[in-house]
Amino acid sequence: MYAKLKRRTFEIVELPSSRDLPSRLFVIFIMTLIVFNVAAVMLETVEELGRPFARFFSLLEGFSVTVFTVEYLLRLWSCTSDPRYAGALRGRLRYALSPLALVDLMAVLPFYMEFLPVDLRFVRSLRLFRLLRIFKLARYSASLRTLDDVVRSKKEELLVTVFVVVIMLIFASSAMYYAENEAQPDKFSSIPASMWWGVATLTTVGYGDVFPVTPFGKLLGAVIAVLGVGLFALPTGILASGFTEEMRKQRVRRETMRCPHCGLEIEGSGEGHA
To answer: What is the pLDDT of residues 57-68, one digit of tens each?
Structure first.
């Protein structure tokens, strides 16, 4: 009975299925609570709303922390039903260090930190981590899971792109420093200070607060701006190809896991069919 209860809990909290009513209700409840929490974190910073509804925000925070704490403990308790986390201690520790479990922990940790004898300024800064609750949606959103799969599959290409961007930023900032330092010593006082212009230019934002005034600096700035357009198009192309590949893989998996007679998903494919 204990093993069945733990397995059933694991199925509800970790393996949501649209055909399982308790699992579906659990997902809807948690997702709704997350949305309310993120909205409350933003609205309580509005002075016209923060004070009149302070009591409501406080009650919502207390209720949410209680629910998320129970959810986290249920996940930690039932995770050993998954063969990947077998082992009463080692398996739970491995699960607790997984990315989504760490997000669950950080979503409630700031609340409990307030009861510890630590610097209150540090505690207040931890309240920002309440916004991490929005990442809990990744458990229940197929779109966010797909994005995670795409980033994981293309991480090498994306890292190469980031490396190229960093090199380009250093080169652009250094070149602009030597071109503009004498004409604008207050704006381009050093290479690190010039990096603000480099970031604004390479990202094609161009705030206009720092810009070249010498002929060579203007020519260099124009070339760097054009290169920035092409440079930041690279990650877009990489992610687009990754999404195309992932959609094709998902379509193949769905087709191979369906019963050839009735068209329903075969048991073990996610929603189950005997």
So the answer is: 889 888 988 998
